[in-house]
Specification:
alpha/beta
Length: about 220
C-alpha cells in the first residue's frame, strides 16, 4: 500500500486549499487503496477571506487547524512528517498555496516560499519519488526548482501565468482540466483543475484521477 503525503494549505479556495480538489484527490487515493498522510504547516494564513463576499476579513486563522476540517481532523503538523516514510507527495491547489506557502499571488516570479514546504518537496523529490501538483500548486514547484533544474508542468491555459513560470526556468505545457502533464524525468505530474475558468467538477475529477493514477504508478 503506497503512502502518499497530502499537503493542505487551509480550507477554502480564496485563502486556503480548494475543497473540491482536496476531496477529489482523497477519493481517488482511497479508491486506489493508498494510505493518505494529510499534513499542513502550523502557521497562520496570510489573510482570511469571506467566501460569501470575496472580501478580506480581520480574522486570524491557522493553516493546520483549518486544513484539519478537510480530513475530519486526521492531520499532522508538516514538521512532524518524515519524508523518508512517504512514497509520493501531492499538493492540491487553492489560493492558500500562492498565499500561505509562498507569495506568488502577490509577487509573481519574485515571490518567496515557505522553507518547510520546500524542504518536504525536495526531500521527496531527491529520493526519486513522484510529486503531484494541482491547479496553482505547480507555480510553487516552479519557484522551488527555479535554481535547481528545469521542470515541465502546467497551470492550464493562462498565458500570463505561464509566462511567469517560464521566467522561473520551468517548461510550461498548456492543457485543459481533464488532462495532465507528466515530467517523466523529474517524476512531476500536474493538472490545472479549477485554474481553468468555468469548469465542471466532473471534468476536474477526470484530471485529478489521472494525476493520482499516474503518481501512484510512479511509486512502483
Amino acid at each position: 500500500m503506497p503512502k502518499v503525503g497530502l499537503i493542505l494549505s487551509g480550507c477554502g479556495f480564496l485563502d486556503g486549499t480548494e475543497i473540491n480538489e482536496a476531496i477529489l484527490t482523497i477519493l481517488a487515493l482511497d479508491k486506489a487503496n493508498a494510505e493518505i498522510v494529510a499534513m499542513a504547516p502550523n502557521i497562520n494564513q496570510h489573510h482570511v477571506v469571506d467566501h460569501t463576499k470575496g472580501e478580506e476579513t480581520k480574522e486570524i486563522r491557522n493553516v493546520l487547524v483549518e486544513a484539519a476540517r478537510l480530513v475530519r481532523g486526521k492531520i499532522t503538523d508538516l514538521e512532524n512528517v518524515n519524508p523518508k516514510e512517504l512514497d509520493a507527495l501531492i499538493i492540491p491547489g487553492g489560493y492558500g498555496v500562492a498565499k500561505n506557502f509562498c507569495s506568488f499571488a502577490f509577487e509573481g516570479a519574485d515571490c518567496f516560499y515557505n522553507e518547510s514546504i520546500a524542504k518536504m518537496v525536495l526531500s521527496v523529490h531527491n529520493q526519486k519519488k513522484p510529486v503531484g501538483a494541482i491547479c496553482i500548486a505547480p507555480a510553487l514547484l516552479a519557484k522551488i526548482f527555479e535554481n535547481l533544474k528545469q521542470v515541465t508542468l502546467t497551470i492550464g491555459t493562462d498565458k500570463e501565468t505561464a509566462e511567469i513560470l517560464t521566467s522561473l526556468n520551468a517548461k510550461h505545457v498548456s492543457c485543459l482540466e481533464t488532462e495532465i502533464v507528466v515530467d517523466k524525468k523529474n517524476k512531476i505530474v500536474t493538472t490545472p483543475a479549477y485554474n481553468i475558468p468555468n469548469v465542471r467538477i466532473g471534468n476536474v475529477e477526470k484530471g485529478i484521477s489521472k494525476l493520482v493514477e499516474t503518481v501512484l504508478a510512479m511509486t512502483n
